[in-house]
Amino acid sequence: MKTIKLILCLICLFCLQQAFSQIKPIVRKTVKPPINKSKFYLFLLVGQSNMAGRGKVESVDTLPNPKVLTLNSRGEWEVAKDPIHFDRSYAGVGPGLTFGKLMAEADTSIYIGLIPCAVGGSSINAWLPAVDTAKTGKNYKVAILRTRTAIQSGTLKGVIWHQGETDCTAKGVVNYQEKLNKVVNGFRTDLKNPTLTFIAGELPAFQTQQPDKEKKMQFNPYVAQINTTLQNLKSILANFDYVVATDTDHIGDYLHFNATSARIMGQRYANLMLKSIKQQGAIK
């Protein structure tokens, strides 16, 4: 009788192992980029924590598309799986992976390369270019260096940006539009791509009500001002657009997108990016 029970237990254990193996994430795997640079479309991911991702990683976020690669912290290409950012040890699901998968699905003849450079808590000042390189924002410098590494293997097609939470203050919104304009033109100039598509993300409505130290909800009027900046820049800059953040939710902190909402934002980024590069005849 004990032998039968042992056999049954072993069978159950084997079945469980088989079931879990179906959703077990692959080990991070470095790969060689495709030989044809013109078929390797690169996208720069910049901003702060909602681009880097703070959503909870689930099995769907670890299922790879072998044609979606990401540039890791060592400057090597690997098959993308969340978290693709490494700004914090607790980086999670952001919009990047969903964006990359949808871009790859839109044209199966190409590969997608993601260049994650977002840094949680970063002010727009950390992203400012400058004629005097000593005054250039530290995050901007890193993004330019990583992108120059990436374009040795592929062709840069666009930038997706989500930032503004740190600057949602009376002081922070002053000259924010001028600064973001400089960021966009800086990337286009330094990466020698004057028509580079740049798509920003709105700040979500849930950020307009945030708890203070005593956990009392306080209204933040500056969220709307950041979003108005995006609307204004769309009418000023060519190849600039923004995705809305409607119908999104947070992880419980009134600040960060949950995983579902991050994926929704990724879909919206992909839709606008596809529209832009189709107009340029760069994708089917």
Automatic annotation (TrEMBL):
Keywords: Hydrolase, Signal
Single GO MF descriptor: hydrolase activity, acting on ester bonds
Domain Sialate O-acetylesterase per the UniProt entry, residue ranges: 41-275
Record Pfam families: SASA (PF03629)
Leader sequence segment: 1-21
Residues that span the membrane, as ranges: none
Stored PANTHER family: 9-O-ACETYL-N-ACETYLNEURAMINIC ACID DEACETYLASE-RELATED, ESTERASE, PUTATIVE (DUF303)-RELATED
Protein name: Sialate O-acetylesterase
